[in-house]
Amino acid sequence: MADKESILLEGLRDSYPKWRSLLHSRFNLLFYGYGSKIPLLSDFADEGLSDGYVVRIEGYMASPRGMSGASILHRCLLGVFDFIFRHALVANDATLLEVARKLAQLSQYHSRTSRSPTRIYLVIDNIERLVEYGGDEVLECLAVIVAASPTIHLVASVDHHRSALMGNILETFAFLNIPVHTRLDYTREVMAFNGRALPAWTGLGGGRGEGCTAYGGAGLAVVLKSLTPNHLNLLKHLALLLLDTSEPDGTVPFDTLLKVTKRKAIASNHVKLKSLLTELIDHRVVIQRRAPTTGAQTYHMPYGKKQIEVISQGDFDSVDKV
């Protein structure tokens, strides 16, 4: 899977400058076609959108049994104020629409007054699911943000067979439709919709029945194969740090991880690293904690030493064999 994915992404990277130019010309991009587009959007965000801040919004995480689309969007937009507009105050109990309007006002102000205004790219995987389980509130907030400023750009993908029914709704965002047939498995999307673990009927050791673990059997290897090369590289270096950590609780502080990811060209800033870590946390291959004395964020993996050693060597196919 990793080789197939790498070949696919290498062939698409020549288009990244053109796509970025379209975004700067006030078009929003909508990718559609057969196959998961999560690796494409991740790679485009990392390699093609380095001139601004990327906010990853995982629409595929929305489901009737889990988070709503509105709560996912609300969490992501609050993160903008934590990492980009730190000087601006926004209440944690502010509604989604209030947060969206505040972000729109700030971005509009910066675009008028700054010689090099901050560009923000909202990258949404499976926007149709975000809307389906978030409703009009999600649409209204996205419309408010995107219409307000020439430096906030929207990149999204659609995959669901019912996404065609959203045609009139999506016209609001002036999307430029881009067909991309990746033919990659929808492993991550299926896991998210079924409680972040593969259902038992897949035969891949998922399931949440009594006595089962989230990624038993071939589960962990399948999860790792579904990740992008950038995620796997981050996971490898986190494993290396975990093996050498001197922290009493055996975790790795965020700042320590950031230094390594900058040096290894995995994540150039804390926003991109936070986005990558959030996805790994959602897949439960990384766990976040807070240091009891300082409150600083720390990270570790919920696996034994032998599995962490295998991950640190980059031998992801062998993690279920130790």
Main attributes of the structure:
322 residues; alpha/beta; Rossmann fold; Arc Repressor Mutant, subunit A; 2 domains; 5-stranded parallel beta sheet; 3-stranded antiparallel beta sheet; 14 helices; 46% helix; DNA replication origin binding; nucleus
Q: Can you tell me about this structure?
A:
The chain is α/β, with parallel strands linked by helices and 322 residues long. The protein has 2 domains: 2-185, Rossmann fold, CATH 3.40.50.300; 227-321, Arc Repressor Mutant, subunit A. It has 14 helices and 8 strands. The strands form 2 sheets. Strands 2-3-4-1-5 form a 5-stranded parallel β-sheet, with helices on both faces. A 3-stranded antiparallel β-sheet has the order 6-8-7. The protein is globular. The two termini are 21 Å apart. Residues 203-218 have low confidence and may be disordered. This is Origin recognition complex subunit 2. It is found in: Nucleus. Its main location: nucleus. Belongs to the ORC2 family. GO terms for molecular function: DNA replication origin binding.
Helix content: 40-55%
Query: Would you tell me the overall average pLDDT?
Result: 81
Number of domains: 2
Structural class: alpha/beta
Say how many strands there are: 8
N to C succession of SSEs: HHEHEHHEHHEHEHHHEHHEEH
Reported by name, the CATH topology of the largest domain is Rossmann fold
Q: Can you lay out the helices and strands and say which pair or pack?
A:
Blueprint: H1 2-12, H2 16-24, E1 28-32, H3 38-48, E2 53-58, H4 69-83, H5 96-113, E3 120-125, H6 127-132, H7 136-148, E4 152-157, H8 167-170, E5 175-179, H9 187-193, H10 219-225, H11 229-244, E6 252-253, H12 254-263, H13 270-282, E7 287-290, E8 297-300, H14 305-312
